[in-house]
Amino acid sequence: MVKRDLTRTMNNGRELYLMAFRMATDGAAKFDSHRAWPGDYPTSSLTEYGTKLVQNGYVKPEDLQRMLCAPGAECQATASGPPATLLFSGKSALKIYKVRAADPSNTIFAASANYVYDTPLDPNTDPFGDAGFVVIRKSGDAGVYKKGQATPDGFDKNVARFQTEIGALPGAEKGNVTPGDGAAALTNPQ
After folding, report:
1. What's the CA gap between 110 and 115, in Å, rounded?
2. Could you tell me where the DSSP H helices lie in 37-122?
3. Which of 43, 71, 113, 183 has the largest CB neighbor count within 10 A?
């Protein structure tokens, strides 16, 4: 059952990635700075970024809500307006990273909320505890990973392989892995 839920979360993350990709691509084609990757304009929260996706017509609030839910992480999205302004409550199953257009394709766009970069999984976090985690990269590829793969130790302590397989944080230098998400992820609803 957990593997099915991890796969569903990965698919939801890819769906969210496709919307983000479309918005960033449209923005680049039209020289519109209001349509960009989450790290290319001053947004610090998932609420702000989700609002941009909704206001620009890339997703409906109810679809965004579905994408951000998983067992143990129920996120509610409500919109008011016009213009539509989102309000999230509950816990998001995914966290979105501040990816920029300049970041390489192996940069992490999203991960399941139980994953903290280069840190062993905590069995007490939702969703999924230490059963596994999900990563979606800027290239659009995604994967479900085992708890032993949360750090370079799971890749024979090979940092380059870890950054290739799992990905790198936005703005990270190749070969530089620092534990924790720091300011790399958008703030999730609590």
Report:
1. 10
2. 46-55, 61-67
3. 113
Residue extents of the structural domains in the chain: 1-190
**Of 100, 172, 109, residue with least CA distance to 137:** 109
Note the pLDDT of residue 176. Answer: 87
Q: What is the pTM of this model?
A: 0.95
Dig out the tokens for 167 from the structure. Answer: 């990905």
Determine contact, residues 152/10, Cβ cutoff 8 Å.
no
**Mean pLDDT of successive 10-residue stretches along the chain, which has 190 residues:** 93 97 95 92 91 94 96 92 89 96 97 97 96 97 97 96 96 91 89
Both tokens of 57, joined, read 């017509």
User: How many whole angstroms separate alpha carbon 65 and alpha carbon 185?
Assistant: 19
Residue 111 host element (H or E): strand 108-112
| Structure-token pair, residue 175 | 């070969």
Q: Which of 120, 148, 190, 146 is nearest to 2 (CA)?
A: 146
Q: What span, in angstroms and rounded, lies between the C-alpha atoms of 114 and 33?
A: 31
